Amino acid sequence: MVPGGRAREVERGARDVLDPVHFDYLAGGAGDERTLTGNEDAFARRRLVPRVLRGPGPVDLSTDLPGVRLAAPVVVAPTAFHRLAHRDGEAATAAGVAAAGGLLTVSTMATTAVEGIAATGAALWFQLYVQPDRAFTAALVARAEAAGCRALVLTVDSPVRGRHGRDERHGFTELPPGVVCENLRAADGRVRDLVVDPDLGWDAVAWLRGRTTLPVLVKGVLHPADARLAVEHGVDGIVVSNHGGRQLDGAVSTLDALPAVVEAVAGRVPVLLDGGVRSGVDALVALALGADAVMLGRPVLWGLALGGADGVRAVLEDLTDELAHAMALVGAHRPADLTPDLVTVP
Ligand SMILES: Cc1cc2nc3c(=O)[nH]c(=O)nc-3n(C[C@H](O)[C@H](O)[C@H](O)COP(=O)(O)O)c2cc1C
Ligand SMILES: O=C(O)C(=O)c1ccccc1
After folding, report:
1. How many angstroms does the Cα of residue 336 sit away from the middle of ligand 2?
2. 289-298: pLDDT as tens digits
3. What is the Å distance from ligand 1's center to 243 Cα?
């Protein structure tokens, strides 16, 4: 079954097919889930002020990002444990992304090895949780690079783990038998536990630079001062993210945080946004407020749960089609035509 409908329907469908404990792990957020709901609410508050009679010409969504040229400014965000959503896990996700001509960010916490994910032919970035064991982290970076990942996405919003009430209520603490984080398998064959590093600082960017020639993005920036620091430390891109409301509950919505970050970055590196993007119109709003691309987290997981690779492909193609259609209706031919004056808060 291939879902073709809108994000809400796909989410409802996924809820119907998934173990409720696993659905809640994937859907849930930290604390009272204010930031989780705030991300979507921020999009719902915006309205578009379209331009008319802007002339003919096809819509061209092509976008250059670190290490990759894409047909549309849409990237799959890194999410853990795809084998909770579908038995084929990240291999199915990657096959769907490849079919849609997209880009998948592989999570450090993937339940399929990065080498196996790369075998699908999908374009990949690799999301990194820097471990206090830097030798192990360097080996993981080398694996990602050897597998053909085109950039590293350093997650910086997790000095400690968020507290997820839904998981606590269910007592969800362990993956099902046979499901493991294959990227945390060490040379000795044993799978390490993830350690988030409370001591991580900006020097981690220079450390990473010394170990890879890949572009490095930082993911999880909300404050414009941090965006400035990221540029000063030589990053190749910034992802405005609150981890889909799974880390600091009460954090600002990503759409509300975006304009100040864009102003601070002043075009020096690409700025991406994730959190609450559920439609092509949402993507258009983020681009108009200055994002160079959006990332999708949960919608891709729901497509995966419902339809495997075909479900992922359908989610990506639907959203991209809707973005192109909405671009035509606001009078824009390419992403650069999308400017903040097209968005209002009535
Ligand atoms: C189930 C789940 C697992 C996630 N795992 C990771 C992860 O391993 N690394 C990471 O940097 N972000 C992770 N994230 C955050 C996503 O990359 C992204 O920031 C967020 O999902 C975007 O919001 P959205 O789900 O509203 O699209 C995860 C999110 C979800 C929902
Ligand atoms: O669940 C998450 O959002 C996430 O990033 C994560 C972090 C550590 C282990 C598993 C998932």
Report:
1. 34
2. 999 999 999 9
3. 5
